[in-house]
Amino acid sequence: METKKIIYTITYRWGVFMEKVLIVIPQMGTGGAEKLIVNLLENFDYRKIDLHLMILYNFCNENNFEQRIKKLPVHIYTLNKKRGIDLFAIFKAKKIISKIKPKIINTHLDSITTMLLSFNKKQIIFHTVHNIAENEAGGFQYFLRKLCLRIFNFKFIAISDLIQKSISAYYKIKSSEIKIIYNGINTNEFKCIREKNNKIDKINIISVGSLKHQKNYFEMIEIIKCLKNNSFDINLTILGDGVLKEQIQEKIKELNLNNFITLIGNVNNVQQYLSKADIYLSTSLYEGLPLSILEAMASGLPIISSRVGGVPDIVINGENGFLYELGNINDCVKSISTLINDYDLRYQMGQNSKERSKIYDSKSCARKYENLYIKGK
Hints:
Elements: H1 2-14, E1 19-25, H2 32-41, E2 49-55, H3 65-69, E3 75-78, H4 87-100, E4 104-108, H5 112-115, E5 124-129, H6 133-136, H7 140-151, E6 153-158, H8 161-171, E7 179-180, E8 203-208, H9 217-229, E9 234-239, H10 245-254, E10 261-265, H11 270-275, E11 279-282, H12 291-298, E12 303-306, H13 311-314, E13 321-324, H14 329-341, H15 343-357, H16 362-375
Parallel strand pairs: 1-2, 1-4, 2-3, 4-5, 5-6, 6-7, 8-9, 8-11, 9-10, 11-12, 12-13
Helix pairs in contact: 2-16, 9-14, 12-15
């Protein structure tokens, strides 16, 4: 990291031209979009771009993103925005942008509302869509994006093939006008340390994600209940926190699953938990290209997931896991049971996951964003 700082300082003082790029995100929480940005920042070539990061709210105390980003040659601006429409934050953003004059602005999630008055026709504005278009922006947010398409040099970036198709259909624009850049992870951080050993007393299932409606944890709990009723010796570990924590805890207690499901909360060492697991489970109602599944794949885990969003792009049914249709709990239970009972299949699917995850490396992702920023298209 110190080398990057030295390179940046020399380049800046010598006046070598670099593209000014501003990345904007509401907050640096524990979600996939935030993880993607940290991975990008840690892999950009700072001899090519002068990177500015604007956070509308602030850093989150529940992860180590702030410490990681502050080691990098990145200009950081936090607006400490209030919930809802905050005029002070809007004009503060406008003042900052007027000062730094970025050629490229890359917005993420619902940051457009605050940034709209800061946009001008000379800038190139990219908006990365992290979910199915209609789930990412409805109502007023949809109107703002349509307005940006009409007034500014505004372009979408999709993180998967399916999301590109959803953007095209939702906003009625050509697919060729939407750039696809697959999410990336640092595959070297995730090690597959488990040895081929079929003498396992208990099967450890793991899931990572915020405790919110999208992740559909109540269906996951029902799945664990069925596995318990089938006399499987299992434990489900859930990493993440959120607004539904109390309701999820109550449901676990109601179904007498306290000895089968463990809520850990947010952690900075996801890798360690993944390395000790046997199966990764996702029951999401909708997804983009989930980094949590990519990280599980890089850890050598077979994946069981609902067939939603961009998941089928990374989980090939029958190759590195099984996909099931939302609500079909019996089908999901059957797939998990197959993996529990067939160690060789579980091991081979995990190896297939590990190999397939290499396609989605953060270095490759960063190079594609860099090229997009420099070329502007």
